[in-house]
Design goal:
The chain has eleven helices and seven strands. With about 280 residues, it is an alpha/beta fold. It has one domain: NAD(P)-binding Rossmann-like Domain (Rossmann fold, 3-Layer(aba) Sandwich). Strands 3-2-1-4-5-6-7 form a seven-stranded parallel beta sheet, with helices on both faces.
């Protein structure tokens, strides 16, 4: 009897937390750009009794993503796909943020939409940053949702004049994630599978630590202080939510985004902190 396969793209804290929650009895295929992070994640999961294989990946390269999807399908039925790969505004210039966080997400959704098993489910980890800017106008939302992935970065709305810095690139990438996942729910549904999105708030992963030690550190502290929860989140809390969305209790949920931010966006909407643009 073949073993179900759980693919986790991005072997950082959130990816590991989700793997721990849903990986028991499955073949876990971890993928990451950073080989050191990949090996450390695999060792940690193997030391906990999980079966893990690894593969390096660059989500901004379709050939790399396709090869991962094909490798996963060779291991067994791909029943769960978790995509957490991304770079933050302090880690990369705007072009790289768009290539990884926006284009890379679109490619993962397309390629794994070809191999996901009937009854399977996926979760993409986005960010609360996608809820900070004003809502996309219908034309922009449609373009970001339905333009073929390989044509996305040529859209005028993603050009240097429209996206002048890495912060702007990050925000529109996360907005695009939301509409892209909703659109993918249709094609994944054609295979009898589901796909959803999670937008975490401030969770102390290495990526978040980079952000909080950068020029926006004061703003992050203000977000925490004014939020309803008054604290940062944990990777295990994101893992719990992902396990629900990937499991049978969420069988009627697909194409949606779950904001898990401790009330940061609610505080923004209430005027308790101000979004600094530019």
């Amino acid at each position: 009897m073949s073993t179900d396969v759980l693919v986790v793209i991005g072997a950082g804290g959130i990816g590991q937390a989700i793997a721990r929650r849903v990986g028991a009895g499955k073949q876990i295929l971890f993928a990451d750009f950073n080989d050191a992070v990949l090996k450390a994640a695999a060792t940690a999961l193997e030391d906990s009794g999980h079966r893990v294989s690894t593969r390096q990946i660059d989500v901004s390269d379709r050939v790399s993503v396709r090869a991962l999807a094909e490798a996963a399908a060779e291991l067994g039925p791909v029943t769960h796909v978790v995509s957490t790969a991304g770079v933050s505004p302090v880690q990369a210039p705007a072009a790289t943020v768009l290539a990884v966080d926006l284009y890379g997400t679109a490619v993962v959704l397309e390629e794994f939409g070809k191999v996901i098993a009937a009854g399977g489910a996926g979760v993409h980890i986005s960010s609360m940053a996608g809820h900070m800017p004003p809502a996309l106008d219908p034309e922009t939302a449609h373009a970001l949702a339905y333009t073929p992935a390989d044509e996305l970065l040529a859209l005028p709305i993603l050009g240097p004049d429209a996206v002048p810095n890495s912060g702007a690139a990050y925000a529109i990438s996360k907005q695009a994630n939301h509409v892209r996942v909703q659109a993918a729910a249709v094609t994944w549904g054609d295979r009898g599978a589901r796909i959803n999105c999670i937008s975490p708030g401030i969770v102390l992963t290495p990526l978040a630590r980079d952000e909080m030690s950068g020029p926006g550190a004061e703003g992050y502290q203000k977000m925490i202080e004014t939020s309803a929860a008054g604290r940062v989140g944990t990777t295990d809390e994101i893992g719990t939510a992902a396990a629900f969305l990937l499991g049978p209790d969420a069988g009627f949920i697909t194409g949606t985004d779950l904001l898990i931010d401790g009330g940061v966006i609610a505080a923004l909407r209430a005027g308790r902190w101000q979004l600094q643009l530019g």
